[in-house]
Amino acid sequence: MKAIRPTGKPRASHPRVKAQLRAHAVYMYKLRRELEPAHCRLVHESRLAPSFVLRRVGLEAARLSAFNRRGIITCWEITAAMQQLSHRRNAIPMDGA
What we know:
The chain is mostly helical. The protein has helices at 15-34, 37-45, 50-67, 75-91. The mean pLDDT is 68.
């Protein structure tokens, strides 16, 4: 038996969702562009997946820029986000310690 399909034309996703996806793509691009080589090394040397670390840094930098009421993510926010995340990672005890 076939599933019942809704009638009418399919709706496009909400404009707010598209704007959020676009904003996410913009800050990920800025994050990759503005990270210093030392920070890139920290990202690749971490035990977590690089995409996960970049996403966490991007989210933290976006939170800091929103907190500072800036429309863009600056290098200062990215550096501060890297420092905060590295302090949090160092504060977590290792297994067996």
